[in-house]
Amino acid sequence: DSGPYVHALAVSHDGEFAVYGDEQGGIRCARLKDGQLILDFRAAGCAIRQMHFTPDNRRLVTLTYPDNRTYNHVRVWDARSGYLLQALLGAEALPTHSSIHPVSGELVVVGDQTKSFDLAQVEPQWSLPSSVNAPWVGFWGGDDALLYFDPRGVPCVSQLAASGGETILWRAGSQSHRPVASLSADRRFALVGSLAVPSECFLLQHDGP
After folding, report:
1. What is the pTM of this model?
2. 198 upstream amide cis, omega within 30 of 0
3. Sign of dihedral through CA atoms 138, 142, 144, 147?
4. Are 190 and 136 in contact (CB under 8 A)?
5. What mean pLDDT do residues 93-119 have?
6. Most distant CA pair in the chain, distance
7. pLDDT tens sequence across 166-178
8. Is the pLDDT of residue 6 over 70?
Protein backbone atom coordinates (compact mmCIF):
# COMPACT_ATOMS: atom_id res chain seq x y z
CA ASP A 1 0.00 0.00 0.00
CA SER A 2 1.45 3.37 -1.03
CA GLY A 3 -0.86 5.34 1.29
CA PRO A 4 0.14 7.41 4.34
CA TYR A 5 2.22 5.74 7.07
CA VAL A 6 0.28 4.36 10.04
CA HIS A 7 1.35 6.06 13.29
CA ALA A 8 -1.13 4.62 15.81
CA LEU A 9 -3.14 1.43 16.25
CA ALA A 10 -5.77 0.32 18.78
CA VAL A 11 -7.99 -2.76 19.17
CA SER A 12 -11.38 -2.60 20.90
CA HIS A 13 -11.60 -4.33 24.28
CA ASP A 14 -13.99 -6.96 22.91
CA GLY A 15 -11.56 -7.76 20.09
CA GLU A 16 -14.13 -6.91 17.43
CA PHE A 17 -12.61 -3.80 15.83
CA ALA A 18 -9.17 -2.41 15.00
CA VAL A 19 -8.59 1.28 14.35
CA TYR A 20 -5.50 3.00 13.02
CA GLY A 21 -4.42 6.58 12.46
CA ASP A 22 -2.00 7.81 9.82
CA GLU A 23 0.55 10.58 9.37
CA GLN A 24 -2.01 12.86 7.69
CA GLY A 25 -4.62 12.69 10.47
CA GLY A 26 -6.80 10.05 8.82
CA ILE A 27 -8.57 7.38 10.87
CA ARG A 28 -9.91 4.04 9.67
CA CYS A 29 -11.75 1.39 11.67
CA ALA A 30 -12.21 -2.17 10.43
CA ARG A 31 -14.09 -5.21 11.71
CA LEU A 32 -11.49 -7.88 12.41
CA LYS A 33 -13.55 -10.95 11.54
CA ASP A 34 -14.00 -9.96 7.89
CA GLY A 35 -11.92 -6.82 7.32
CA GLN A 36 -15.01 -4.72 6.60
CA LEU A 37 -14.21 -0.99 6.80
CA ILE A 38 -16.56 0.62 9.33
CA LEU A 39 -15.18 4.17 9.59
CA ASP A 40 -12.98 6.30 7.35
CA PHE A 41 -12.61 9.98 8.26
CA ARG A 42 -10.03 12.69 8.86
CA ALA A 43 -9.69 13.62 12.53
CA ALA A 44 -6.87 16.15 12.25
CA GLY A 45 -4.54 17.97 9.90
CA CYS A 46 -1.46 16.37 11.47
CA ALA A 47 -0.31 12.86 12.40
CA ILE A 48 -2.18 10.75 14.92
CA ARG A 49 0.18 9.90 17.82
CA GLN A 50 -2.03 7.65 19.96
CA MET A 51 -5.55 6.20 20.03
CA HIS A 52 -7.58 4.44 22.72
CA PHE A 53 -10.99 2.79 22.94
CA THR A 54 -12.95 3.47 26.12
CA PRO A 55 -13.86 0.33 28.14
CA ASP A 56 -17.37 0.26 26.64
CA ASN A 57 -15.86 0.36 23.09
CA ARG A 58 -18.27 3.15 22.15
CA ARG A 59 -15.81 6.06 22.15
CA LEU A 60 -12.38 6.66 20.67
CA VAL A 61 -9.76 9.04 22.08
CA THR A 62 -7.14 10.46 19.71
CA LEU A 63 -3.93 12.34 20.48
CA THR A 64 -2.13 14.18 17.68
CA TYR A 65 1.48 15.29 17.42
CA PRO A 66 2.06 18.52 19.39
CA ASP A 67 3.59 20.57 16.60
CA ASN A 68 0.92 23.26 16.48
CA ARG A 69 -0.03 25.32 19.54
CA THR A 70 -3.26 26.54 17.94
CA TYR A 71 -4.75 23.05 17.66
CA ASN A 72 -6.63 21.03 20.27
CA HIS A 73 -4.71 17.74 20.27
CA VAL A 74 -6.91 15.51 22.47
CA ARG A 75 -10.34 14.64 21.10
CA VAL A 76 -13.08 12.11 21.88
CA TRP A 77 -15.09 10.56 19.03
CA ASP A 78 -18.13 8.32 18.70
CA ALA A 79 -16.56 5.01 17.62
CA ARG A 80 -19.64 4.03 15.61
CA SER A 81 -20.31 7.22 13.65
CA GLY A 82 -17.04 9.17 13.78
CA TYR A 83 -18.80 12.24 15.23
CA LEU A 84 -16.69 14.48 17.46
CA LEU A 85 -17.99 14.37 21.04
CA GLN A 86 -15.49 16.48 22.97
CA ALA A 87 -12.19 18.34 22.68
CA LEU A 88 -10.00 18.31 25.80
CA LEU A 89 -7.10 20.30 27.28
CA GLY A 90 -7.44 23.37 25.08
CA ALA A 91 -5.41 24.48 22.09
CA GLU A 92 -2.39 25.72 24.06
CA ALA A 93 -1.56 22.35 25.64
CA LEU A 94 1.14 20.17 24.05
CA PRO A 95 0.41 16.57 25.15
CA THR A 96 2.97 13.83 24.51
CA HIS A 97 1.33 10.69 25.93
CA SER A 98 -2.07 9.42 27.04
CA SER A 99 -3.54 6.38 28.77
CA ILE A 100 -7.03 5.09 29.63
CA HIS A 101 -7.85 2.97 32.68
CA PRO A 102 -9.28 -0.35 31.33
CA VAL A 103 -12.10 -0.47 33.90
CA SER A 104 -13.06 3.05 34.97
CA GLY A 105 -12.31 4.70 31.63
CA GLU A 106 -10.41 7.57 33.29
CA LEU A 107 -8.14 9.33 30.79
CA VAL A 108 -4.71 10.67 31.75
CA VAL A 109 -2.86 13.02 29.39
CA VAL A 110 0.82 13.84 29.93
CA GLY A 111 2.55 16.94 28.60
CA ASP A 112 3.29 20.50 29.64
CA GLN A 113 -0.14 20.20 31.25
CA THR A 114 -0.79 16.75 32.77
CA LYS A 115 -4.46 16.19 33.56
CA SER A 116 -6.95 13.40 34.11
CA PHE A 117 -10.52 13.28 32.81
CA ASP A 118 -13.59 11.23 33.70
CA LEU A 119 -15.04 10.27 30.33
CA ALA A 120 -18.18 8.74 31.79
CA GLN A 121 -20.30 11.78 30.82
CA VAL A 122 -18.80 12.49 27.40
CA GLU A 123 -21.32 10.50 25.38
CA PRO A 124 -24.41 12.56 24.39
CA GLN A 125 -27.81 11.61 25.79
CA TRP A 126 -29.44 11.78 22.36
CA SER A 127 -28.09 11.26 18.87
CA LEU A 128 -30.35 12.33 15.99
CA PRO A 129 -29.50 12.20 12.27
CA SER A 130 -29.45 15.77 10.99
CA SER A 131 -28.62 17.77 7.90
CA VAL A 132 -25.02 18.81 7.26
CA ASN A 133 -26.11 21.41 4.71
CA ALA A 134 -28.74 22.90 7.03
CA PRO A 135 -27.20 22.74 10.52
CA TRP A 136 -30.09 24.36 12.41
CA VAL A 137 -31.77 23.08 15.58
CA GLY A 138 -33.94 24.56 18.33
CA PHE A 139 -35.95 23.50 21.36
CA TRP A 140 -39.65 23.99 20.65
CA GLY A 141 -41.97 24.71 23.56
CA GLY A 142 -40.23 23.00 26.49
CA ASP A 143 -36.92 21.24 26.85
CA ASP A 144 -38.13 17.89 25.48
CA ALA A 145 -39.23 18.80 21.93
CA LEU A 146 -36.66 19.48 19.22
CA LEU A 147 -37.14 21.10 15.81
CA TYR A 148 -34.42 20.21 13.28
CA PHE A 149 -33.76 19.16 9.68
CA ASP A 150 -33.06 15.52 8.85
CA PRO A 151 -30.22 14.49 6.47
CA ARG A 152 -32.47 15.14 3.42
CA GLY A 153 -33.35 18.65 4.59
CA VAL A 154 -36.86 17.68 5.73
CA PRO A 155 -38.03 19.63 8.82
CA CYS A 156 -38.92 17.39 11.77
CA VAL A 157 -40.14 17.72 15.35
CA SER A 158 -39.06 15.00 17.80
CA GLN A 159 -40.03 14.32 21.39
CA LEU A 160 -36.95 13.50 23.48
CA ALA A 161 -37.28 10.84 26.19
CA ALA A 162 -35.26 10.81 29.41
CA SER A 163 -34.05 7.32 28.48
CA GLY A 164 -32.28 8.71 25.43
CA GLY A 165 -34.90 7.64 22.88
CA GLU A 166 -36.91 9.92 20.61
CA THR A 167 -40.32 9.92 18.92
CA ILE A 168 -40.96 11.87 15.73
CA LEU A 169 -44.07 14.01 16.27
CA TRP A 170 -44.11 15.73 12.89
CA ARG A 171 -42.25 15.57 9.61
CA ALA A 172 -42.91 17.65 6.50
CA GLY A 173 -44.04 15.74 3.44
CA SER A 174 -41.16 16.90 1.26
CA GLN A 175 -37.62 18.13 1.60
CA SER A 176 -36.67 21.80 1.36
CA HIS A 177 -33.90 23.30 -0.72
CA ARG A 178 -31.84 25.62 1.51
CA PRO A 179 -34.23 25.19 4.47
CA VAL A 180 -34.53 27.81 7.21
CA ALA A 181 -36.46 28.01 10.48
CA SER A 182 -37.26 30.52 13.20
CA LEU A 183 -38.77 30.26 16.69
CA SER A 184 -40.86 32.88 18.48
CA ALA A 185 -39.40 34.37 21.67
CA ASP A 186 -41.68 32.22 23.88
CA ARG A 187 -40.93 29.15 21.68
CA ARG A 188 -44.65 28.44 21.16
CA PHE A 189 -44.54 29.12 17.41
CA ALA A 190 -42.13 27.96 14.73
CA LEU A 191 -41.89 29.09 11.12
CA VAL A 192 -40.21 26.65 8.76
CA GLY A 193 -39.53 27.41 5.12
CA SER A 194 -36.92 27.64 2.40
CA LEU A 195 -34.72 30.28 0.81
CA ALA A 196 -35.48 28.76 -2.59
CA VAL A 197 -38.24 30.09 -4.86
CA PRO A 198 -40.99 28.94 -4.93
CA SER A 199 -41.06 28.07 -1.24
CA GLU A 200 -43.47 26.12 0.97
CA CYS A 201 -43.75 27.45 4.53
CA PHE A 202 -45.09 25.83 7.69
CA LEU A 203 -46.34 27.67 10.76
CA LEU A 204 -46.33 25.37 13.81
CA GLN A 205 -47.92 26.01 17.18
CA HIS A 206 -46.92 24.25 20.38
CA ASP A 207 -49.99 23.49 22.51
CA GLY A 208 -48.10 22.37 25.62
CA PRO A 209 -47.23 24.44 28.69
Report:
1. 0.59
2. yes
3. negative
4. no
5. 78
6. 61
7. 788 888 877 667 7
8. yes
